[in-house]
């Protein structure tokens, strides 16, 4: 089944259950000082849940463009390293605003996955909230009882407050959730270790696809919980992950959502996917990031030096660096991918078609200017090499290069190694640590799906820099 068909099947199914199908809200948020990018389908419905406005329909479904690169949901460092987290992805969702509740939400999710889409029941696991003594919250027996009508009881697993209790922020609507996980391992591997043991273990082949949130409480300012008069349902399913399952693939990147882009990257960079892990990571990063950047530009957010624009600029630069370092691309090339992307996604998201020229030109210019910066960094590096006393460059200098020119340390390390030099890594790390402490002291980080800033100072996101999965540096500075 093609991805476009999968998207339609989801929407048609919920339309048949009397849901109104609405368009995706923009991915870039302009009117909410607490959130830069849409990170979940429910964002655009926040005011309904808070009771500040009334929806035109009590049942809604859509596919929402999401971006998870900052705050509570920051998946950036996973992207490319694993096969199922993206920066930009589509979240399919259905909502009940004071209308249906657990029985229908669970029943329809099951009907869609197993009957309409034909997923093998033996590959599915579900989780329910196990309760939390400290909060005085009970296990979600109601969800359990609905699930056990549909699925064997040993496939219904308990989940902790961390995974199975959703909160909007420090205050507001919240409630237990129930997640659906799919085991995509071979029958042989499934026989070795039960899939139940791998749920919530971040296993690349036992992945969460759908989260059903049941909003039934309100968290008050004093931290206590009260029952909501009207109960709501908020669900989110990862579209690319669903495609992976239905197309019988082991990676989102092997679905037709990504393969046309990957083929184009192979052609443009004269590399091939699936032979060398480093090259593969770079190709995945580029295929992912070009989507995030293109969708953002289509929403009107160009790369810039502040706020959301800077986040987008850093994402694009990250892609450029991966191309520069691992695919040996010293010339702009990412802009060449927009044709393929627009062909692939333009029907579902017509804004890509209408903004195609802008997207292409902006990406090309950004690539040109960042490659020049990289060139300047190379000149400085050359100076460091010629003036070095021994074979080791000081970590502080490498840090300066990184901090001022956005020159990633592994790129520096690579170039130095080629010339028979190295740099003092612990000095670099200690400079980095100092800087992290400075930024921590100076800034705050988004922590919730909404986070009301305590004072009126603006935060400028000044980026994250690392090509390594194990270092996550998110820097904020007050301006
Ligand atoms: P995970 O535990 O895999 O990080 P999550 O629990 O953070 O996912 P939710 O906030 O529950 O995700 O979002 C609903 C659904 O959106 C998930 O079940 C998943 O299918 C999908 N999803 C979440 N994050 C990503 C991502 N970075 N890329 C692609 N799909 C995602
Ligand atoms: Mg997550
Ligand atoms: Mg999860
Ligand atoms: Mg989840």
Automatic annotation (TrEMBL):
What domain notes does the record hold?
Consists of three domains; the N-terminal catalytic domain, the editing domain and the C-terminal C-Ala domain. The editing domain removes incorrectly charged amino acids, while the C-Ala domain, along with tRNA(Ala), serves as a bridge to cooperatively bring together the editing and aminoacylation centers thus stimulating deacylation of misacylated tRNAs.
Family membership noted in the UniProt record: Belongs to the class-II aminoacyl-tRNA synthetase family.
Enzyme Commission no: 6.1.1.7
In this chain the Alanyl-transfer RNA synthetases family profile domain maps to: 1-479
UniProt-annotated location(s): Cytoplasm
The answer to keyword Heme applying to this record is no
What reaction does this enzyme carry out catalytically?
A: tRNA(Ala) + L-alanine + ATP = L-alanyl-tRNA(Ala) + AMP + diphosphate
Q: What does this protein do?
A: Catalyzes the attachment of alanine to tRNA(Ala) in a two-step reaction: alanine is first activated by ATP to form Ala-AMP and then transferred to the acceptor end of tRNA(Ala). Also edits incorrectly charged Ser-tRNA(Ala) and Gly-tRNA(Ala) via its editing domain.
The biological process GO terms on file are:
alanyl-tRNA aminoacylation
* Co-factor note (free text): Binds 1 zinc ion per subunit.
GO annotation, cellular component aspect = cytoplasm
Gene Ontology molecular function, alphabetical: alanine-tRNA ligase activity; aminoacyl-tRNA deacylase activity; ATP binding; tRNA binding; zinc ion binding
Where does the UniProt entry say this protein principally localizes? cytoplasm
What is the species of this protein? Pukyongia salina
Q: Which UniProt keywords apply?
A: Aminoacyl-tRNA synthetase, ATP-binding, Cytoplasm, Ligase, Metal-binding, Nucleotide-binding, Protein biosynthesis, RNA-binding, tRNA-binding, Zinc
Q: Which domain of life is it from?
A: Bacteria
For this entry, the protein name equals: Alanine--tRNA ligase
Q: Which cofactor does it need?
A: Zn(2+)
Give the main EC class. ligase
